[in-house]
Write a structure and sequence with these properties.
Blueprint: H1 10-16, H2 38-49, E1 56-62, E2 64-65, E3 77-78, H3 82-102, E4 108-116, H4 124-137, E5 139-150, H5 157-166, E6 170-176, H6 180-185, H7 192-205, E7 211-217, H8 224-237, E8 241-246, H9 268-284, E9 288-290, E10 294-296, H10 301-307, E11 312-314, E12 317-319, E13 325-329, E14 334-337, E15 340-344, H11 348-356, E16 362-367, H12 370-385, E17 387-389, H13 390-397, H14 401-404, H15 406-410, H16 413-417, E18 421-423, E19 427-430, H17 438-443, H18 447-454
Parallel strand pairs: 1-4, 1-13, 2-3, 4-5, 5-6, 6-7, 7-8
Antiparallel strand pairs: 8-10, 9-10, 11-12, 14-15, 15-16, 17-19, 18-19
Helix pairs in contact: 3-4, 4-5, 5-7, 8-9
Bound molecules: iron/sulfur cluster.
Residues 65, 68-69, 72, 74, 76, 116-118, 151, 174, 188 line the site of iron/sulfur cluster.
Length: 467
């Protein structure tokens, strides 16, 4: 992995930086439809229940935050009023009850993730209560990955103690950027001391591995020198993993981003430099690149899995613990059950109404057809392991890679020419240079994108830019 000197020129960036999905799922959430709802979900849950020995993944969405950060792309509810959040907790528990009824035989969990919002908006007692409710219905297999997102501004030592005691063993800290001017522009003021203290306390209470820090490049007023200083500070904390996400500027989807001054956003050239600076610093500090935007210490399980080609990606991020079915609870939560995606209601009112009516609060979904499943696998392998083998595809799906994916392979010509991918008898490999543009590579395999392009249905961008 000696690719610390990846260099990409501006012309290349301009050529390839275009709107594109992040491929946390394939097909992407824009294909979800209201035609796939609760009835389909119940059917797929019944199918899932028929394989009692297979463990589940569980995602719980805890959407509350006290203040809004202007860059935020998550589905959040901003309120300082705890009773609003208390009510939600009760409904979340009722949703878990409804699901458990549908999964009487399928109760073991290999991975759980609490995301938000800010899960530690809740008190330690509330966290204990919700966790207890999960374990009333589900059992964690030994070594299960139990993760939670924490905001260093509101997470206290007693939160950490409680979560460690309950069995949480992965902690993801939102940092984004440590420069005061950038923080002011995105209305997220968080000192380095707060972050440092939380990492220290987390280790003291037992989070000895799996500490992750999230950073974002492409935020207003970011520039390489100060961002480089941020990176040095973060490296000094020696997190096990770091995620360096590209800022998704989508004001047409996230209305609050309209408050950001578009003039303050870094140019494509600067944005790339920010990314390359991060890549260089983390590689020089001994981290290994994971997928497109993650880095991990060599002994971290993500790095070990990446080296062995057994890394997976789902809505919760990269994982070494794939489950055949993933349940999502809470507003906007997405699950993937028996080759169907199901997304919950996004509004509290409709979410509550469904549960009051005794319905699973599914608003939309998508059932994958055989072609989707082949492309889903190909895209996932490229995103996670930067390669896809022809024999592997033939063995799993009984199709000839070159023939079946001929139209996609033809669409790879520009990324091949640019040196981003190598195609040979074994399959496709993304080069170190190509990692920056891995989303572009995946886009060639995206049937929906092909159809939309053919229909010239691209007048208004749906996705953030790929770099
Ligand atoms: S704290 Fe996190 S989830 Fe809440 S608004 Fe800020 S970025 Fe979004």
């Amino acid at each position: 992995m000696a690719d610390s000197k990846v260099r990409v020129d501006l012309e290349t960036v301009k050529r390839f930086d275009r709107p594109g999905p992040r491929y946390t799922s394939y097909p992407t959430a824009v294909e979800f439809t209201e035609e796939v709802g609760e009835a389909a979900y119940r059917e797929r849950l019944a199918m899932a229940n028929a394989t009692p020995d297979a463990p589940l993944s569980l995602y719980a969405h805890l959407p509350f935050c006290e203040h809004r950060c202007l860059f935020c792309g998550c589905h959040v509810v901003i309120t300082p009023h705890m009773p609003v959040a208390e009510k939600y907790l009760e409904y979340l528990k009722r949703e878990l009850d409804l699901l458990a009824e549908r999964l009487p035989d399928r109760r073991s969990v290999v991975q759980m993730h609490w995301g938000g919002g800010t899960p530690t908006y809740y008190s330690p007692a509330q966290i204990r209560d919700l966790f207890g409710h999960v374990t009333e219905h589900f059992d964690f297999v030994p070594g299960a990955e139990i993760a939670v997102e924490v905001d260093p501004r509101v997470t206290r030592r007693d939160h950490l103690e409680t979560m460690a005691e309950l069995g949480f063993n992965r902690l993801s800290l939102g940092v984004q950027d440590l420069t005061a001017a950038v923080q002011a522009a995105i209305t997220r003021n968080q000192t380095f001391d707060e972050t440092e203290k939380l990492v220290r306390q987390a280790r003291e209470v037992g989070f000895t591995e799996g500490i992750n820090i999230d950073l974002i490049y492409g935020l207003p007023l970011q520039e390489p020198v100060s961002f480089g200083r941020n990176l040095d500070q973060v490296i000094g904390l020696r997190p096990d993993r770091v995620a360096v996400y590209s800022f998704a500027y989508v004001p047409w989807i996230r209305g609050h981003q309209k408050k950001l001054d578009p003039e303050s956003l870094p140019s494509a050239e600067v944005k790339l430099e920010l990314y390359l600076t991060a890549m260089e610093r983390f590689l020089d500090a001994g981290y290994q690149p994971i997928g497109m935007d993650h880095f991990a210490l060599p002994d971290d399980e993500l790095a070990v899995a990446a080296n062995q080609g057994r890394l997976y990606r789902n809505f919760m991020g990269y994982t070494v613990m794939p489950a055949s079915d993933m349940i999502g609870v809470g507003i906007s939560g997405i699950g993937e059950v028996q080759h169907g995606f199901f997304q919950n209601e996004k509004k509290l009112s409709t979410y509550y109404k469904a549960i009051d009516d005794g319905r699973l609060p599914v608003a939309r979904g998508y059932l994958l057809d055989p072609d989707d499943r082949i492309r889903q696998y190909v895209i996932q392998q490229i995103m996670c392991n930067f390669r896809i083998g022809k024999e592997d595809v033939a063995r799993r799906f009984g199709v000839d890679f070159d023939e079946y994916l001929a139209s996609s392979l033809a669409r790879l010509e520009d990324v091949r020419e640019a040196g981003f991918v190598v195609l040979d008898d074994e399959g496709l490999r993304v080069t170190p240079q190509g990692r920056v543009f891995v989303r572009n590579v995946c886009m060639a395999f995206d049937r929906y994108l092909m159809e939309k392009e053919a229909a010239r249905d691209q007048e208004r961008p749906v996705f953030s830019r790929t770099v």
